[in-house]
Write a structure and sequence with these properties.
about 400 residues, mainly beta, Methylamine Dehydrogenase, Chain H, 4-stranded antiparallel β-sheet, 28 strands
Amino acid sequence: MRWCALALLMLAGCVESARVLGPDDAGTTPPEIDAQVPREDGRMPMPGVSDVSAGGAHSCAIVGGSLWCWGDGTEGALGTGPSGDRLVPARVGAASDWRAIEAGQGMTCGMRESSVWCWGTNELGQLGLGDREPRRSPAEVPLPGAPLVVRASREFVCAIIEGGELLCWGANVEGQLARADGYPGPDGLTPQRVASELRFRDVCTGQGHGCAIATDGSLWCWGRNTESQLGLGTGVPLQLREPTRVGTEVDWAELACGMSHTCAIERDGTLWCWGADFAGQIGITRGSQFDVPTRIDAGWSEIATYVFHTCGVKDDGSLWCWGRNAEGQLGVGDIDDRNRPTRVDDRTDWARVSVGWFHTCAQRTDGSVWCTGENGDGRLGVGDPERRNVFTEVQGIGVE
């Protein structure tokens, strides 16, 4: 998950315009990546690839408004009806107005022109449809307004609608839905507003916690805090069930939530992370825990994390990853963990990146999508179930 995971706040289609988006950019759609420039191998890239998302054991991408998914389909996360694993991308329905996609754990949510649709596993109400029944094809989520951002994690989903209202649904035992209720709060089977009068422009969903950036640039977090993933310092409860402000800064631009850590980028491109660093996923000191946002370095335009590893794109178009690498998910050519941000290769045409459970997918400015890591269920989309430790191009996106 990007997370940047996934928002409507997408990077523009060339490295020069790959910038951190600010308050005035909420709800806008930057130009698509230019798919007319021949690739380095002389082939023309797939046209119109505008978004990519890596989930728990599957991945999805949007191509010219059509949606394609691949990987583990046993729980319906691919949205292609009854199916098993798919080793190459398969089109999801006939709709051609998909704008953003977010692959979660065993489920997926996507944003169309003026609506959010979810499908897959639903035992905790994470599809937001008012019941706990799974869906194997996209079903529209009832929202009180047009969506701007949607984020899906393992157990809950949040969306920002026009006007900046933040709504969440799904698991709530750890306060993930930020409803200011008591423990253990009931799961949310339908979208409901978080316990805040603030208006927001970005949100991330982790495994037990969430964070959001308000329209004034301030940062707020809630939910599980057992590893200081809320960034609130010492002496703070292990669980907070409503949004709580992180620090006093008002220049936050982008964020990503993992299982036990969180990362965020300021408007000047400075990257900060906090929480547990047991696998090197924060990129500071493996085995340590950081109670407040801790500076990594500058020059970042995008950040993504999920459970055990983190990746990001810098302003110069270079791709960096760190943390667990036993499955090759860092894409650096081996299976050794990295405790600090490590450059993936010498390319400078990476546009965006999305981190899954044990795999990573990234998009280049020529419109192509590349994945690395675990692949027993086909989540890399390369036509076979073999694991990769370098980024390998996804085959057949947009080909029917």
